[in-house]
């Protein structure tokens, strides 16, 4: 069972709540995904349109809510966003994300490490979204992060495991759970991440932007389970040369 | 005859001006933060309030009164990845 900061999860699929065409579709997709943790964002309230109606049904569902700091451009803003989210959701969990670059949404490693240190000292359970940088992930672990969330490829790009080589190193070295986040575009890519030994994956766009998000959420749920089971079963060695699976002697010549 | 009405109102209720998310609002001077939020039809369970750049914890909303010139920022939880 996956455990992050003493909290146990039966499902290793985390989902985002963004980009769904309606709140009901989002709720149905989350239910189909069997996720027990979903991410949310903070935004200045538009007084003319009122508040979002998604919060109450999510709170009633019992799913753990993980607020993110998206929109923060530096450590100071991220700490502020985390404190706001704690006020609203009554949680000290936070997905720390600082990506000032609007084109590729690359996470800023310097600001992220600085914010992580402050937030950990303030008692937050910090899950930082970072580039697949093994050195940075170790540093984040050292300052007290409860997990690391390295990216597979740019947010929302559906490009899959572009960072596979580095994800493997992170997974090998990490003493906290590794949640592969961002860019996973297909269920097979989620399976692959889990086969590599990731502790969980976070998927949003691939589900929300599919033609049938509820069906796709179910596919991702199965994919993550399959990948985890395959990892636990122990994958065979990869070999350059052929290794015969049938006896090669005795049949024709003797 | 009719023109006396606004004068009477102004005698009974003193008002102050505060801003909420950069928009000015004229409100009675006795309002608490919670009353201010309710008057704006804001769902108080799903927002965080910042007053003059400082987070105001929920426990203080009932007792902290709005003051002339206060700058409030109200944040809500929304969908996100």
TrEMBL record, chain A:
InterPro entries: Aldolase_TIM, Thiazole_synthase_ThiG, ThiG. It is an enzyme of class 2 (transferase). It catalyses: [ThiS sulfur-carrier protein]-C-terminal-Gly-aminoethanethioate + 2-iminoacetate + 1-deoxy-D-xylulose 5-phosphate = [ThiS sulfur-carrier protein]-C-terminal Gly-Gly + 2-[(2R,5Z)-2-carboxy-4-methylthiazol-5(2H)-ylidene]ethyl phosphate + 2 H2O + H(+). GO terms for cellular component: cytoplasm. It is found in: Cytoplasm. GO terms for biological process: thiamine diphosphate biosynthetic process. 1-deoxy-D-xylulose 5-phosphate binds at residues 156, 182-183, 204-205. Keywords: Cytoplasm, Schiff base, Thiamine biosynthesis, Transferase. Residues 3-247 form the Thiazole synthase ThiG domain. GO terms for molecular function: thiazole synthase activity. Pathway: Cofactor biosynthesis; thiamine diphosphate biosynthesis. The active site is at 95 (schiff-base intermediate with dxp). Its EC number is 2.8.1.10. Its main location: cytoplasm. HAMAP family: ThiG (MF_00443). Homotetramer. Forms heterodimers with either ThiH or ThiS. PANTHER family: THIAZOLE SYNTHASE (PTHR34266:SF2). Catalyzes the rearrangement of 1-deoxy-D-xylulose 5-phosphate (DXP) to produce the thiazole phosphate moiety of thiamine. Sulfur is provided by the thiocarboxylate moiety of the carrier protein ThiS. In vitro, sulfur can be provided by H(2)S. Belongs to the ThiG family. This is Thiazole synthase. It comes from Shewanella canadensis.
């Amino acid at each position: 069972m996956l455990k992050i900061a003493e909290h146990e999860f039966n499902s290793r699929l985390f989902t985002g709540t963004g980009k769904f065409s309606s709140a009901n579709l989002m709720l149905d997709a989350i239910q189909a995904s069997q996720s027990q943790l979903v991410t949310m964002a903070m935004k200045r309230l538009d007084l003319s349109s009122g508040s979002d109606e998604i919060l109450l049904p999510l709170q009633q569902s019992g799913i753990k809510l993980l607020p993110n700091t998206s929109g923060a451009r530096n450590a100071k803003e991220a700490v502020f966003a985390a404190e706001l989210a704690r006020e609203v959701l009554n949680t000290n969990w936070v997905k720390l994300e600082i990506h000032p670059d609007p084109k590729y949404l690359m996470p800023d490693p310097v600001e992220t490490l600085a914010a992580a240190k402050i937030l950990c000292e303030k008692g937050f359970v910090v899950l930082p979204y970072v580039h697949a940088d093994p050195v940075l992930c170790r540093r984040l672990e050292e300052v007290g992060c409860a997990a690391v969330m390295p990216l597979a490829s740019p947010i929302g790009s559906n490009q899959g495991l572009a960072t596979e080589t580095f994800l493997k190193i992170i997974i090998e070295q990490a003493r906290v759970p590794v949640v592969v986040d961002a860019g996973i575009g297909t269920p097979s890519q989620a399976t692959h991440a889990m086969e590599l030994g990731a502790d969980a994956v976070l998927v949003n766009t691939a589900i929300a932007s599919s033609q049938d998000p509820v069906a796709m959420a179910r596919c991702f749920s199965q994919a993550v389970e399959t990948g985890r089971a395959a990892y636990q079963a122990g994958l065979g060695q990869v070999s350059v040369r052929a290794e015969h699976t049938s006896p090669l002697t005795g049949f024709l010549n003797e | 005859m009719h023109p006396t009405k606004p004068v009477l109102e102004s005698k009974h209720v003193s008002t102050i001006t505060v801003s909420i998310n950069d928009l000015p609002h004229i409100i009675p001077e006795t309002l608490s933060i919670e009353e201010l939020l309710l008057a704006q039809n804001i769902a108080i369970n799903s927002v965080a309030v910042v007053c003059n750049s400082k987070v105001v914890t929920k426990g203080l909303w009932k007792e902290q009164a709005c003051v002339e010139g206060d700058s409030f920022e109200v944040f809500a939880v929304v969908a996100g990845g």
